[in-house]
Amino acid sequence: MNQSSKKILIIIPAYNEEGNIVKTIDELVSLQLPLTILVVNDGSKDQTALEAKKTGVQVLSLPFNLGIGGAVQTGFKYAYQHHFDVAVQVDGDCQHDVHFLKKLMDPVLQGEVDMTIGSRFIPPFTGYQSSFIRRIGINFFAGLISWLTDSKVTDPTSGFRVFNRKLIKVFADYYPSDFPEPEAIVIARRYHAKIREVPVEMRERIFGNSSIRYLKTLYYMIKVTFAILLDKIKTTKVHQDVI
User: Fold this and answer.
1) Is the link from the previous residue into 182 a cis peptide, with omega within 30 of 0?
2) What are the start-end ranges of the E strands in 34-186?
3) pTM for the full predicted model
4) Among candidates 111, 161, 148, 233, which has minimal Cα distance to 9?
5) Cβ of 28: how many Cβ atoms within 10 Å?
């Protein structure tokens, strides 16, 4: 298939992002790329869905809050059912600078890799890099995942990602629920996916609050660590049983 004819879906999971969602969409539209934009309104209690609909993009509203994993998987299911070739995950809080989108998509569109991750920790890394506490968690998961998968990862919690059709199918069937980004890398590697990080810049949130704050950071680290290790154990056992 010609690169220019590939169908590309932008998946924007959004929970209580009425102050950010229009700017996020407007920045994507301003790129003037052949994209379909889908906002997955994750049971927001504010006017996120209404604000998104005003822009004319497609909006799917979940009946209640499933969390980031459920919202993103909804996007993957939509992408698979509507025969999209590439899916792009972009957060609805406007922290992802979408001017890096083309650089992030190109390796996937050209068939060089199955998945790209926008990393704020690859030079020149001049943008916002999150709080000190969250960077501790990011560095911990970077080391753990790099060790378990033999793939160098610097920004495993980044939600700025691109996936090809192979991984769209994988994640439409199963996607981790809570705090899914690090575990999703391990799952992708289980399917022998080629993954590449691309340097990007990110910005500090202007409106609203992150869903991962203070004590949740510790919970996040413990829960995701167990999930990653359990996934690795299951994969190793299946491999041994096959042998």
Assistant:
1) no
2) 36-41, 58-61, 86-89, 115-119, 161-164
3) 0.85
4) 161
5) 21
